[in-house]
Amino acid sequence: MKNLVSLCSPSHHESRLRELLLSLLRETFTEFFPGCQLLPFGSSVNGFEISGCDLDLHLELGENEKEDLMEENKDTEEKKVTVKDISGDNRGEDNEELEEGASPEKDGDELDMQVTAENESSDDDDDDDDEEENIAPGLSLQGLSHEEILDVVGRVLRQCVPGVHGVQSVPSARRPVIRFQHKTSGLRGDITLNNRLALRNSSYMRLCSDLDPRVPQLVYTVRYWARVQQLAGNPLGGGPLLNNYALTLMVIFFLQTRSPPVIPSLIRLREIADNDTSQVIDGWDCSFVSDGTQCPASENQQSLSSLLSEFFSYFSSLDLHSNILCPRDGLLMPIPVSSPPPTWTEGFRMGPLNVQDPFELNHNVCGNVSTRIARRFTTRCSAAAKACRSPIFLLRSSSRPWGVNLLIQPSPSEGDKAEGADIAISIGKALLEDVFAAVKTVLVEVLLCGCKQDSDKDGVGVKSNEETAHVVPSVEELNIEDKGAEVKGENMGEDGIKNERKRESSDDIQGTSPKKRRIEEDGSDLVADRQKNVIEKSPCKKGNPSKVHKNQQAEGALSMRIDVWHHIWEGRRKVRRSMQGKVEQGIKLETAVSRALSAGTQEGGRPIMQITATTRLGTDGSAILHFSPDSDDYGCSATFFHFLKIFLPRMVENVLSGKD
Ligand code: UTP
């Protein structure tokens, strides 16, 4: 999570480019709208800046400036400068810096190149509207609506700022905005008018980010996760997804409501502030302490991973539809709200997800979120919470994702799911159901999977592990070093590994727990016994095999559901090598290898994968096993099937031949 912050943060070069673009814009706007202020807000200043994020700007014209503009208009009629003049000679110092290429001691060679490219690109702007009437400084904004002012701003951007293109006005947005892009760097920007509330909420977020290092780390991780899960980041502004501001407020709210809190509520920050820092914007109380060092340090000592895990479990179980998250008070407000309702509820747009803006109290920052996205948020939180609880979350590996990487894997859509695999097993003289039983034996006994047979009509299946016992000595007995990695890392908190011991009923999934298996005291080989038993029990045994095969084909395939609990295919060769000579080759050795690989990992909650296996006869008389994943939270099924393709035929042959 710490790495994620530094990996996502913009480079020095990118930050410098933003600064230069901002000064260029400032200079141009000041020329047209003397006394105006162009101030950044949003992620560029709120402590959650990521590489490639847009540049949100607030253009403050103010009534006085508008009046001044009127006056100036009269004087400047005669000294109007054309657009071409402005974009050429009349640019200020920063602009010159951009044009000439930034000085190496200031910006470095890389920036020089960027800037040169930018100026080149400004000459061949292809999409600018040359037809548009030229604009000149000193025009009056008096009497113009916001929309019209935005239009003027758009024209200034389009005509007078070199390197800027794709200027587009979005007057229908909640806060009308002008979008633009810096051509060479691809940097996008938004300019809104008189959006001082956004300036203030950005300062509030900055304060939260500075209060505790866990705040930015959690915010970056959750924001990254939400983007990968297609929950947040409406690329074009509008849309049904959460915006980053809303998501960040959810993290802030979560941190305010821990026990003890990681950060104080806004109300508490207001109490800490001196009276003279009181600020009211658009009628809303926007005061809070400006100096974070005045706040006492949090008493909450939870680790980052524990907070992350808790974030997901908290939101997976919260009834979003029936509550309003209020980061101002750090409280959850049930819907319907108490009577008499607070005045802000008037105008508050209730939706499937309700998060109150901490300043503009009647604004639901998630008002745009659709029911489908709200539902997806809950299900993805629930999946992430499970991933955080899974044993492999803290189990380091170089061959598969673990830790935060597990959460930020793109979640496979239905269409992307691993297709499944066909594995052919030559059956010789055996019956199809013998092969089926042998496969089950290998999966349950050797690979420690849980297994439930779907079509155990005639008692052909093997017994569950509860009824049987293991034939191999435990790892401890073998005195073999556990080659499976240890669970390293921090305690996962209240929803952590502890809870994983809660298991599904063994009535439902037979033999799910190798921990429950007993080692037969006399060490007798029950696998072979069972095979004998299976074959003897088979009603097909005495019949005509070809007839049986035909029947089986007619009746449909034999199938079973498999729960895979451990990554028993990973690092197998290495562990096997370490055991060779100590354990008899074949099933015994392979079982011991699986047990070694599973040691240190725990079962609980949900298996790594759930698979359905069906068996049918192939046209060449071999048994065809089709494995298809029902659930595959960690995207391991393809690797597992690849392993089975080689492992299974060999092991099934051993079982059928009674070698082991
Ligand atoms: P974003 O949602 O873009 O957040 O809103 P962000 O933190 O800047 O993240 P990026 O840019 O997507 O990386 C931008 C700013 O707009 C204001 C907030 O100041 C926010 O930081 N905003 C957004 C509001 O005031 N209210 C809203 O409902 C949404």
From TrEMBL:
PAP-associated domain boundaries: 303-363
A Pfam short name: PAP_assoc
Region annotation Disordered: where it falls in the sequence: 68-141, 476-554
GO annotation terms (biological process): RNA 3'-end processing
Keyword Transferase attached: yes
GO molecular function: metal ion binding; poly(A) RNA polymerase activity
Superkingdom: Eukaryota
Bias kind Basic and acidic residues: ranges: 71-93, 480-506, 527-539
Cofactor: Mg(2+); Mn(2+)
Gene Ontology cellular component terms for the protein in this record: nuclear speck
Metal-binding recorded as keyword: yes
InterPro entries from the UniProt entry: MTPAP-like_central, NT_sf, PAP_assoc
Domain Poly(A) RNA polymerase mitochondrial-like central palm as annotated: residue spans: 1-78, 111-206
Bias-annotated ranges (Acidic residues): 94-112, 120-134
Keywords annotated in UniProt: Magnesium, Metal-binding, Transferase
Protein name: Speckle targeted PIP5K1A-regulated poly(A) polymerase
Native organism taxonomy: Eukaryota, Metazoa, Chordata, Craniata, Vertebrata
